[in-house]
Write a structure and sequence with these properties.
Elements: E1 3-5, H1 19-28, E2 33-39, E3 42-47, H2 48-64, E4 72-76, H3 81-92, E5 96-100, H4 106-116, E6 118-123, H5 132-138, E7 144-147, H6 152-159, H7 165-172, E8 180-185, E9 195-199, H8 200-213, H9 215-218, E10 224-227, H10 234-246, E11 249-252, H11 259-266, E12 270-273, H12 275-292, H13 294-316, H14 321-341, E13 348-351, H15 358-367, E14 370-375, E15 385-386, E16 399-400, E17 405-408, E18 413-417, H16 429-435, E19 442-450, E20 456-461, E21 466-467, E22 473-474, H17 476-484, E23 489-495, E24 502-508, H18 513-519, H19 527-530, H20 534-548, E25 557-562, H21 582-588, H22 590-595
């Protein structure tokens, strides 16, 4: 067992809560452009003073509505400016925010609101109130709803006009560092979601650590980021709080389909995303080049190989003259265009939620975008380890951040400890006790190892290890991550528990498919026909062969089946953070799995 504990380099948190950061920003720099709001193709600035004033007025409205200190208030909405205002207004009123994914089913919404005992909910628009009517009938304590599209924030501000500043400040300061700031329900791959109690102290400790650890991001001139990940997820939420703490301008992109367009107009200096976004950008660019012409496709492939080789050479401390010349040429032909597509100013990105992989990490650093891959869970307020620009090991998830302890159990499970670890599961002492050791370490459920330099490498999930009939333990993530990186593949689920060999369920990437068909001279056809197409199966087999190179023969995928539908959030097979719901997939596609072993 290897244990690594890092002594904190941050000031101890003895009092206060997250709202103090807004008050401090206002006192320090009231004219700072905290947030940019998009109107058509233009972005208008909201200063720190204006943001604070709007938050305080909405908070007064919540107090006038009769909300009490500690009341839970839900937000069911896409990522948008109003989400942020409502979140901070809830905190200013002394209440607790309960974020809910906009893609949640009515049953999930009802469970979260019922379990958290939420008394009010912010909705994005009438279309997101689809679950409210039956919930109101079933959950008696849910008595208030506010719809952003109906000027709910303005109406609350008008209702709160009679609440004094002193009354608001009394409510604002009611919560101390140990008080719950938010209940974030883990999307979960099995069973009902559990509410993670994230305290004000958890958030402040994590944010202070992050801001001080990455000055290249937070202290860059005119630093800015465009948030497009769900604010209902702990990762996006933490980064937003850190932005307001570290004086970084925030923009919101509620529509992922408009991401490239918004990146071009907003021009952020850094991004936060999950690996699937980086995979999509790479695969889309490659497919577009190959569709344009064989020559452009060949140029892109050579440029990608050069970027990876250049980044790997940086790790070895020497870039040959020939490689440097090739890299400079491709920078003009390819890399500069990719950076321009992301706004032209991006230098860094933070990636989490799943494994990025060495190939993508080296490719992006090679084109001039350093991706800082990190690791954490909802229960650890997102971040626990992070690669830094000054301490970067591509392929790892970085070293523990200051104040964080990491430990590897004899069975390989990663344990974490620090001021960012949650206060427990809401109304679920049994689950809390199961997740925590007697000496205060959190059991992550992930399998990993710490190398000789203290970098953490995640190799799989403890509960997702597949044991074949021959007794071989197989971590599916190794194969799945490599397969999802291939342009033709959208999702992959490795199977083989108690079976004689490893198999896989595979879905095709609908966005990339037209370009792939053209590039390979395959006639377009209905999905049912494409599943039987020998050329399509050959392309998938090639991807499977490449993935198998990462594992031993006994761990390799021997057979696969291509499913007629993709695995998505909408059909329930992916969690909102894009993790596969393995148990549900295995259950629903049992016939397909059995066909692999017939």
């Amino acid at each position: 067992m290897r244990e690594l504990s890092v002594v904190a380099n941050i000031s101890p948190i003895s009092s206060g809560n997250v709202t103090d950061q807004i008050e401090a920003l206002f006192a320090r720099n009231p004219e700072f452009p905290s947030i940019s709001i998009q109107t058509d193709d233009n972005w208008s600035t909201i200063t720190a003073a204006q943001f604070r004033a709007q938050v305080r007025s909405v908070a007064k409205g919540l107090i006038a509505e009769g909300l009490n200190v500690g009341d839970r208030v839900a937000i069911l909405s896409r990522t948008r400016f109003e989400w942020t205002v409502a979140d901070y207004a809830i905190w200013y009123a002394g209440c607790v925010t309960v974020p809910i994914y906009e893609t949640s089913s009515p049953e999930q919404v009802e469970w979260i609101i019922s379990d958290s005992h939420a008394v009010a909910t912010f909705f994005e628009a009438q279309r997101t109130t689809h679950a409210f009517t039956p919930i109101a009938a079933n959950v008696s304590h849910m008595t208030r709803s506010y719809v952003f599209a109906d000027d709910a924030l303005g109406e609350l501000a008008r209702k709160g006009a009679s609440v004094s500043d002193s009354d608001l400040d009394s409510r604002r300061s009611a919560a101390g560092p140990n008080a719950p700031a938010t209940l974030i329900y883990t999307s979960g791959t099995t069973g009902r979601p559990k509410g993670c109690i994230i305290t004000h102290g958890n958030l402040m400790a994590e944010v202070d650590t992050l801001v001080k650890a990455v000055p290249e991001v937070f202290e860059a001139p005119e630093a800015s980021t465009l948030i497009f990940l769900p604010l209902a997820h702990v990762f996006g939420r933490l980064i937003q709080v850190a932005m307001l703490r570290g004086e970084v301008t925030i923009g919101h992109c509620p529509n992922p389909a408009a991401l490239l367009k918004d990146l071009g107009s907003f021009k952020p200096t850094f991004l936060l995303a999950v690996p699937r976004v980086f995979e999509k950008v790479f695969n889309g660019s490659a497919a577009k080049a190959h569709e344009a012409s064989p020559v452009k496709g060949k140029i892109f492939d050579q440029a990608a190989a050069t970027a990876i080789a250049y980044s790997e050479a940086l790790d070895h401390g020497h870039v040959s003259k020939g490689l440097s010349i090739k890299h400079g040429l491709f920078d003009k032909l390819v890399y500069s265009k990719l950076r321009h597509a992301m706004g032209g100013r991006v230098t860094h990105a933070i990636s989490g939620g799943a494994a990025l992989g060495s190939r993508l990490g080296h490719f992006y650093r090679g084109i001039g975008l350093i991706i800082l891959e990190g690791y954490g869970l909802t229960e650890t307020t997102a971040g626990s380890t992070l690669n830094l620009p000054t301490a970067l090991k591509i392929g790892s998830v970085g070293r523990p951040l200051p104040g964080t302890g990491a430990r590897i159990e004899p069975d390989g499970e990663v344990l974490l400890k620090g001021p960012h670890v949650f206060a427990g599961y809401w109304n679920n002492d049994a689950a809390t006790n199961e997740a925590m050791t007697t000496d205060g370490w959190f059991r992550t459920g992930d399998i990993g190892e710490l190398d000789g330099e203290g970098y953490l490498h995640i190799t799989g999930r403890k509960k997702e290890l597949i044991v074949t009939a021959g007794g071989k333990n197989v971590a599916p993530a190794v194969l799945e991550d490599r397969l999802r990186a291939n342009p033709i593949i959208s999702q992959c689920v490795v199977v083989g528990d108690n079976k004689p060999y490893i198999g896989a369920l595979i879905t095709l990437d609908q966005d990339a498919l037209p370009q792939i068909l053209t590039a390979n001279n395959i006639e377009p056809a209905a999905m049912s026909e494409l599943l039987k197409n020998a050329d399509i199966r050959a392309l998938v087999q090639k991807a499977v062969n490449a993935a198998n190179e990462a594992v031993s023969n006994s761990e390799a995928i021997k057979k696969f089946v291509i499913l007629p539908e993709d695995l998505t959030i909408d059909n329930g097979y992916l969690t909102p953070k894009m993790s596969i719901r393995r148990h549900l997939i295995v259950q629903d596609f049992a016939t397909d799995i059995e066909s692999l072993y017939a």
